[in-house]
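Worked problem 6 (solution included).
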Amino acid sequence: DTRRWWGVEELVRSDKVWFAATGITTGLLFEGVSRRGQSTRTQSLMLTAPDRRWQVLTTYVELPPPAEVQR
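Solution. The predicted structure is:
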């Protein structure tokens, strides 16, 4: 049901819940994945239920250039 707002107690039967999400495109919570040279940057959000803490993590990873599409 896409119109219903689900509470954590309906989804998980424990108070030891961790939630993580990583942005793919830029939106309200995250900047999208970006590349500069061989460096790729992502932003992720981590939430923990027991202590109600949250963190936004920015990660940089060195990746080889994407392969070219062959036609």
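Discussion: DSSP finds one helix and four strands in the chain.
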